[in-house]
């Protein structure tokens, strides 16, 4: 499996528009601005596979990228926008909830969190949910280049410790798209999920 083979398949407003179930999907989720698009571009070594720094509202589609036959990366809508009315949030987040709850092809979840403020309520909700349904999680602590090494390591250890309490299949890595930190390890975890 080579993530660099990723090609855009579809942007879906809801799960009915997704490719037929079957095969393996690894989904990427995170608060808006966590660095999800950058991570997807970095892992696939494609500059603009997932668009970065989009305005909220244009990001609420489920974007699907095919890696190989029946193996797909899925870019889920970001959550936790600050400046958006509740009603709009609800409508937007419907696709996210539906995908997570219903998609049988989902075999692994990458959760992107800014290393400077990880494990916010919505992140914890998502990770707890994944733990409850035995879905493996890779937590990428993004923008690791923003912290000095000591602080970076202590953040990783702290997050690992908190998540270890869930007794689930959860891996935690420091990640930087800018410096390519953690890219190889993250790639290995994701490729392993595709091979299982
Ligand atoms: P998304 O909303 O989660 O898709 O986030 P983006 O990938 O669009 O990134 C949000 C912002 O964080 C942009 O301004 C990126 O340039 C910045 N960013 C993303 N990854 C990194 C990183 O590894 N290091 C630094 N310093 N900035 C990053």
TrEMBL record:
Residues 22-196 form the EngB-type G domain. GO terms for molecular function: GTP binding; metal ion binding. InterPro entries: G_ENGB_dom, GTP-bd, GTP-bd_ribosome_bio_YsxC, P-loop_NTPase. One of its GO terms (cellular component) is cytosol. It comes from the Bacteria. Pfam families: MMR_HSR1. Keywords: Cell cycle, Cell division, GTP-binding, Magnesium, Metal-binding, Nucleotide-binding, Septation. Its cofactor is Mg(2+). GO terms for biological process: division septum assembly. The keyword Protein transport does not apply. Necessary for normal cell division and for the maintenance of normal septation. This is Probable GTP-binding protein EngB. The lineage of its organism: Bacteria, Pseudomonadati, Pseudomonadota, Gammaproteobacteria, Alteromonadales.
């Amino acid at each position: 499996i080579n993530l660099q083979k990723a090609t855009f398949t579809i942007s879906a407003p809801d799960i009915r528009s997704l490719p037929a179930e079957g095969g393996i999907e690894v989904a990427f989720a995170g608060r808006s601005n966590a660095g999800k698009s950058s991570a997807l571009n970095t892992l696939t070594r494609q500059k603009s596979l997932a668009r970065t720094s989009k305005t909220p509202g244009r990001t609420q589609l489920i974007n699907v990228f095919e890696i190989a036959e029946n193996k797909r990366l899925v870019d889920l809508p970001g959550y936790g926008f600050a400046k958006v009315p509740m009603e709009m949030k609800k409508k937007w987040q419907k696709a996210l909830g539906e995908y997570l709850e219903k998609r049988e092809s989902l075999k692994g979840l990458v959760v992107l969190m800014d290393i400077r403020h990880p494990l916010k309520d919505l992140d914890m909700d998502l990770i707890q949910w994944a733990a409850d349904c035995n879905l493996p999680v890779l937590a990428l602590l993004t923008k690791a280049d923003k912290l000095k090494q000591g602080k970076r390591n202590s953040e990783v250890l702290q997050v690992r410790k908190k998540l270890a309490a869930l007794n689930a299949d959860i891996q935690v890595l420091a990640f930087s798209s800018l410096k390519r930190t953690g890219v190889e390890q993250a790639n290995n975890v994701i490729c392993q999920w595709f091979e299982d």
